[in-house]
From TrEMBL:
One of its GO terms (molecular function) is ATP binding. Residues 19-49, 253-273 are annotated as: Disordered. Pfam families: Chromo. Residues 103-183, 197-257 form the Chromo domain. Residues 55-101 form the PHD-type domain. InterPro entries: Chromo-like_dom_sf, Chromo/chromo_shadow_dom, Chromo_domain, Zinc_finger_PHD-type_CS, Znf_PHD, Znf_PHD-finger, Znf_RING/FYVE/PHD. Keywords: ATP-binding, Metal-binding, Nucleotide-binding, Nucleus, Zinc, Zinc-finger. Residues 35-49, 253-269 have a biased composition (Basic and acidic residues). This is Required to maintain repression 12. It comes from Zea mays.
Length: 294
């Protein structure tokens, strides 16, 4: 994590150009693509043949009867054997082995081309194969949690979720257009602005289910809608902001306790003027004072 953050903080000497004003999921397809490759890629994928699939038996417990079949592969399960227990009414259901983390992708930020690893590590032949990897922004997570996904992993997920391939094609077109504009304007293309990985202020804190402290973070140059809960261990580099938040909370608590301790309750000695239609009996007045300060 730290190496990624450090890398994202490096500023270019040239004026950078940022490319996240437009989602790769919302770009219009090229005119005439209705009968082209993109449409073919959106066709339903064939079910994956799992070599270790158990014949008419649950993949977890090995027993038969009342099985539900995965719609994207040949695995079968009992509902009770899945965690959490499966409760669906639709025939379309994918097992945990088929559900890719890439379904939680918010957008693609960048593409890098790398040398593919040699199958024979002792070979002295020059490397000719290239492979890509993709920088992914995940839904509900801040930019410090962006991560690289290999071309192989992305392709495997796209075979099950064809929309991922469409989103990648959209991003390629978007990036090509940005390259042309960057060459014209003399700007660099930067996937993530360093400000987006810098804590602006901390708004709240809580403990998660395992007892770790989390902070609700407002990030520099991002809106309040893009605030995220962050584990304390992920933002230790921003210790001054954490200490500032804790100091403010301490002062508020101290001020509140002091005001509460010094406040003298004022009880009604007679019927309040805002009540009409008669006067209160002594026992009613006592009950009103009790409710007011209980």
């Amino acid at each position: 994590m730290s190496s990624l953050v450090e890398r994202l903080r490096v500023r270019s000497e040239r004026r950078p150009r940022y490319a996240l004003d437009e989602s790769d999921d919302d770009l219009p397809l090229r005119v005439g693509a209705g009968k082209g490759k993109d449409q073919q890629n959106d066709a339903p994928a064939e079910r994956i043949e799992r070599e270790d699939a158990k014949e008419e038996a649950c993949q977890r417990c090995g027993k038969s009867d009342n099985l539900v079949s995965c719609s994207t592969c040949t695995y079968k399960f009992h509902r009770k054997c899945l965690v959490p227990c499966l409760n669906i009414t639709s025939d379309k259901w994918s097992c945990p082995e088929c559900v890719s983390p890439l379904t939680e992708m918010e957008r693609i930020l960048d593409i890098e081309v790398l040398e593919a690893p040699r199958e024979d590590s002792s070979s002295t032949e020059p490397r000719s194969k290239k492979m890509e990897r993709y920088l992914i922004k995940w839904k509900g997570l801040s930019y410090i949690h962006c991560s690289w996904v290999s071309e192989k992993e992305y392709s495997e997920a796209a075979n099950i979720h064809p929309r991922l391939r469409t989103r990648l094609n959209n991003f390629r077109r978007q990036k090509e257009a940005m390259k042309i504009e960057a060459e014209r304007s003399g700007e660099d293309i930067v996937a993530i602005r360093p400000e987006w990985t810098t804590v602006d202020r901390i708004l709240a804190s809580r403990k998660n289910l395992v007892g770790d402290r989390e902070y609700y973070v407002k990030w520099n140059e991002l809106t309040y809608e893009e605030c995220t809960w962050e584990n304390e261990s992920d933002i230790t580099v921003f210790q001054p902001e954490i200490e500032r938040f804790n100091e403010i909370q301490f002062r508020r608590k101290k001020s509140g306790d002091k005001g509460k301790a010094t406040r003298e309750p004022r009880q009604f000695k007679e019927s309040p003027t805002f009540l009409s239609g008669g006067t209160l009996h002594p026992y009613q007045l006592e009950g009103l004072n009790f409710l007011r300060y209980s």
